[in-house]
Design goal:
With 164 residues, the protein is α/β, with parallel strands linked by helices. It has a single domain, classed as 3-Layer(aba) Sandwich (Molybdenum Cofactor Biosythetic Enzyme, Chain A). The protein has 7 helices and 6 strands; from the N terminus they run βααβαβαβαββαα. Strands 2-1-3-6-5-4 form a 6-stranded mixed beta sheet, with helices on both faces. Strand 5 and strand 6 form a beta hairpin. Helix 2 packs parallel to helix 6 and helix 3 packs across helix 4.
Amino acid sequence: MRFGILTISDRSWRGERPDLSGPALAEAVRTQGWQVLETAILPDEREVIAQKLAEWADSAHFDVILTTGGTGFAPRDVTPEATRQVVERLTPGLDEAMRAASLNIHSHAMLSRAVSGIRKRTLIVNLPGSPKGAVENLLVIAPALPHAVELLREAPDSEQKHMK
């Protein structure tokens, strides 16, 4: 599977703080045996985020785009709004699974506003901004991602897995 990773952080974008979450996610993706094709750091600007998500999804180069950051309660946390702006179909089961698993680790998980959805044949998933939280949430949904991508690609045998 082919991944793009977007870090959403004003401070990392300005170079005031190193991006730790993007590299942590990239390592976790590679550990699963998947490819990271591109990474980028963006400011907490709704239109900038939405434009990059649409550009990457519309390119058909990525099966999954992961975002990290901008999913909380802070006034500049607009990643979920940017994601909703570009996706065609929401995938709430992924969001629910991540929040449920995260609540077993930390009570602050209930403050997550992260969403996920599909644009064309690309899955977009918002993850927390902390390296630990981002990787933990990715690992929750990782078992379902190969089948999700098969379905998006309309792989001939993808429906057979529903029969087992």
